[in-house]
Amino acid sequence: MAQRMGNPSLVVPGALQPLLDLSEVLGKAGVEQSTLDLIRLRVAGLNGRVYTFPAEPADKRLLLVDTWRTEPSFTDAERAALELAEAVTVQTDARSAPSDEVWANASKHYTDVQLGALVMHISLVNFWNRVNVATHQDDAVWR
After folding, report:
1. How many Å apart are CA 39 and CA 56, to the nearest integer?
2. Are residues 130 and 122 in contact, defined by beta-carbon separation less than 8 angstroms?
3. How far apart are CA 10 and CA 73, in angstroms?
4. What is the pLDDT of residues 64-79, one digit of tens each?
5. Is the CB of residue 102 less than 8 Å from the CB of residue 122?
6. Would you say 74 and 82 are in contact if contact means Cβ atoms under 8 Å apart?
7. What is the DSSP letter of 102?
8. Is 0.90 surpassed by the pTM of this model?
9. Burial, 49: exposed, middle or buried (Cβ in 10 Å; 0-12, 13-18, 19+)?
10. CA gap 54, 49 in Å, rounded
11. Rounded to 5 degrees, what angle do the CA atoms 8, 19, 130 make?
12. Other CB atoms within 10 Å distance of the CB of residue 93
């Protein structure tokens, strides 16, 4: 598909830096970067955003993220974060928000600050995905 326009975060003056600043803040909230990466890739998959891997990734679990429920290489904390990521991503209204059980499970592994960062990170990834998918941006290359 041809791009519909340049990336909106670059087209709209001043839009990119606040998003990058928020991402930096969230990365300092105490959630492992590897967990944030797993979330980014899983949410992207749910949103139809494609990542290409130029070489084998350092964390081979990135290639297994769609099987996190059954793949034994994910920790309980990572599973809780991925479960929360899926619940936030697929919600369509207040009735389909993450269940109390999903929230309680995540709360076992993360502090309130970390949970807040997770929800904001999931939402920011959804934002990026939706902007990029809506405007037919090229597939992303994993860093």
Report:
1. 18
2. no
3. 37
4. 999 999 999 999 999 9
5. no
6. yes
7. H
8. yes
9. buried
10. 16
11. 50
12. 6
